[in-house]
Amino acid sequence: MREPDAAAVRREDVTPAGTADEQLIRSLFDEHAGSLYGYVLRLTGDPGKAEDVVQETLLRAWKHPDVLTDRPVRAWLFTVARNLVFDHHRARRSRPQETSDEALAVIPADDELERAVESWGVADAIATLRPEHREVLLETYYRGRSVKEAAEVLGIPPGTVKSRTYYALRALKLALEERGLAP
After folding, report:
1. Rounded to whole angstroms, how far apart are CA atoms 28 and 80?
2. What angle do CA 170, 129, 111 make, to 5 degrees?
3. What is the b/e burial string over 10-28, where b = at least 16 CB atoms within 10 angstroms of the residue's CB?
């Protein structure tokens, strides 16, 4: 595995300018940022996240300089970095998956959503019809066949196609009314 580039984490990103502890943070950065970045990169697999975690780790070291005096500095930095990685991982798992702009672009508009919901309701209502009624509606309305053509395809007399269509439409109207889809 290639050695991480310490320059990937820029000193000015983590060094609060003009503070009394600037020398401390510079020495921490110079001494530990490269190896800390490599460690976090192996944990996350994402260079951007690794940079963020290293910056946050060094920021916490700057905020709590007293912690660094009574324990090994490198061990404390690596522990903080590991905990930050785990916290970020847990936070991602606890909230819904984020979507990209490309995924949002395929979401239909409100009117398209309403039509989709209505079509599901109509399909559900059609599924409740008797098979012979579904066949007649399929041939006459969906495929656009005349009564005579539907009769030939179904192998039944044209009068039967007419009566089945009538009863199928009545049954469909009732099923749609039950679902709140009838006008």
Report:
1. 14
2. 80
3. eeeebbeeeeeeeebbeeb
Distance (Å, whole) CA 35 – CA 105: 41
Tokens 């940022």 locate to 33
17 against 166, higher pLDDT: 166
Residues shown for the chain:
183
Q: Under a CB-based contact definition with an 8 Å cutoff, are residues 61 and 23 in contact?
A: no
Q: Amino acid identity of 35?
A: S
pLDDT at residue 148, rounded to an integer: 94
Q: What is the pLDDT of residues 106-120, one digit of tens each?
A: 666 667 777 788 888
Distance CA 87, CA 57 (A): 13
